[in-house]
Amino acid sequence: MKWLPLVLILSAGGALAAPPTSSLRPVARGDLGPAPEAAAQQPPVGDPRLAVLRPRARPDALPVVTAQAEAPAPEAPRTAQVEPEKETLLDLLRPLARGAAPAEATTRAAATPAPAPKPEDLGVAQEVEPKPKTLLALLRPKVRTRNVEDNAKRVGAARRGNMICGVETIQGIAIGNVPGNGACGVEDAVRVSSVSGVSLSTHAVMDCTTARALNAWVAQAARPAIGTTGGGLSELRVAAHYACRTRNNQRGAKLSEHSKGHAIDIAGFKLRNGQELTVLGDWHGDHAKVMRAMHKAACGPFGTVLGPDADRFHRDHFHFDTARYRAGTYCR
Questions:
Q1: DSSP letter at 329?
Q2: d(CA 215, CA 237)
Q3: Predicted pLDDT of residue 64
Q4: Helix H segments across 31-102?
Q5: Is residue 99 one of the residues assigned to a domain?
């Protein structure tokens, strides 16, 4: 009974016990046997499980090397071909960080320029007013807003309401005829509060001829002479205006032009920063040049101009008048 398993195994696997018909050793290159096509057509011999152990047939592409084959000629060395590296997003963005555009992007942009955007594409409405073509048109102010126009109208109405002597820059009130003793008095007198934007410390009474002369002198002489010193001229300090008296208040002297409303005396000039220039202190002081320029420029608008060099009565003020009897000007 102990031999029974061995007998069964030998009877069932007879094919295993049979020796292989072909050797398992690798065949020499010269004795490769039949062509692959013929080998593929031959039926398997022996146990099919041994077929997996056989070497596979070489493809047709491999040449059969025999012992008598000549040695192949050495091939020329091949140059290694390096595949170009692909550009990454970081490589494209690196030139932009240095302030330069990629060459490809620059070439593409130069080849196909982007069309200029239209105003309509940007939400900008077309201009209604034509563009100026001359230098004067460029300097001309644009259309004012409604608020600016309203403010200008209010200021203009206020000025016209206080305008006297037919000149908008002369502000004050008309007081009519001013009677006086003897030959004193003023016909069609006005009380002036400001001229050419410069106020008077005391609202002065005079006639319109004198008021217009004062307005012209401030605009053409006083304001330009002071210029931007202290921020500019702000106020005239009035020393005297209409008064029924003799010249220099001397007994027995002729009536002064003040008694007819033809004269005004100016003692100083207040600046916008609060500083004040005085005839007494600045005629020979730091602002002597300004004082003398204003004194000289008054000869023209006024018929008589007196200052510190005229006499001792005028050492601290300017005397301006529009005497009707003078054919020319008298300036001292």
A1: -
A2: 15
A3: 47
A4: 36-41, 89-97
A5: no
